[in-house]
Structure formats: C-alpha cells, structure tokens
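Pilot study result, target chain (246 residues):
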Amino acid sequence: MEGLDASSIVPLYKQLKDLILKEIKEGKLKPNQKIPTEQELSEKYQISRMTVRKALAQLVDEEVLAKKQGKGTFVQEPKIVEDLDNANSFTNLCKRNGKVPGGKTLKFVLEEPSDRDIRELQLEPKEQVIHIQRVRTADNIPVMLENLYFPGHLKDILTENLDDSSLYQILQEKYGLRDKDFIMEIEVSECNNYEASVLGIKNNSPLLLVRELIYDQYNHPLHRTKSLLRGDKIKYISSRLNTSEG
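Predicted structure:
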C-alpha cells in the first residue's frame, strides 16, 4: 500500500480507507484474502489503532470487508444483487452481475401434487405436478437449490434438457409461454444435510428461502418455486423513490 499524508486535509482514516479500496480495485487485494491486522496497519502507517478501526468499520459496513470471528478481516466477495422491483430469471440475474450462469438438474419427474400445489397452481382433479429440482451456479459456484412445480398438463417439458439452460427461454421459444406477474415471499431458513452437501456449505448454515407463484401472460398460474439461496452469495434490494413534491 502507498503511504498516508498527515498534512492533507483528508482525514487519515479516509486516506487509509481509499488506499484499501484502490488495492481491491487493482486486484492487489483479492476476494476472500485476509488483510493486515489493526496493529499491523497502525504500525505500518504510524497512525492510531482507533484511526485504523474507523476505516475498517466503514468498509465492513459498506460490505467491502468482512470480519470473521477469531480469524481476522477479509476482502468480501461481491454478492449477486437482485432487485425485487425488477426480478427476473436466474440466467439474466447472473448476466447483470457479470457472472456466468450454470446449473445441473437433480430431479425432473411427474409426481402427485401436494395440497399447496393443488391450491396455488389451480390443478384439475387427478392432475399431477411436474417437479424440477436444480442446483444453480454462478461462475461454477453453487448458489441456489431451486425447486419448481409446474401443472401436469405441461408435461411436454419433461423432454427438455435443462442443464445450463434458461427454462424461461425454453418456455417462451417452444411453448409460447412467458412469465408476467408474480407473488414472492422471503424468509430465513437453515439448511439440512442434503441442502448443505448440494450447496457446498456447512449444515445449519443460514439460507434465504424464497417462494414464488408465477403467472403467465394469460394470468394463469405458470409454476410455483421454492428456492434456497446462499446468503453469503446473493442479496435482494428494493427501492422506493418518491419524486412528488409536497
């Protein structure tokens, strides 16, 4: 890192913060890399630990750095950001965040529906449900375990290869169906042994549980989803801007 200028009108903590940001931007400090301790930074730049602590605290608050109990402070890997006001397919989500989308189909079967399937998908009597389970990856890292449930009358999709493919693109190009409206619920969950093994994380790690009911362009239920997302890899945002006066 470069030096700090004690004669500058820019506060020392801000200079240190900017230096760290510059090192990250230039790739000298990489995601998940441990940075020097408060004591080491204090001695290197001849500044107080309080000054160092203030710079690091702001970077942690801004999610640039992350503190790990008993291990130190690390460069935070940028999370995939999904805008709740403009939610889209996983493929498009990855592309907007500069990631390469991928996936592997774990289950693709016709099965008996649950009460929830019958109610939300408005199934006909004795109609089955198509259950698709996929692990979704971003830059080859597992970030989501996705369960999709389609009405059984769409069983032709059982012939499709969904690995590393956009299901929405297939639905639109081959079946003339596109998503229009949706209802979404988000809550916190803990992964079990199976989910942990698929996502490559520790058992009982916190996850985001996202349920969606998707409607097609004809206002018919297209499918419902139950997705488990790694909270260390994905975050949701929503904004409300009131531009009216008074």
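One observation from the pilot: The mean pLDDT is 91. A full batch analysis is planned for the follow-on phase.
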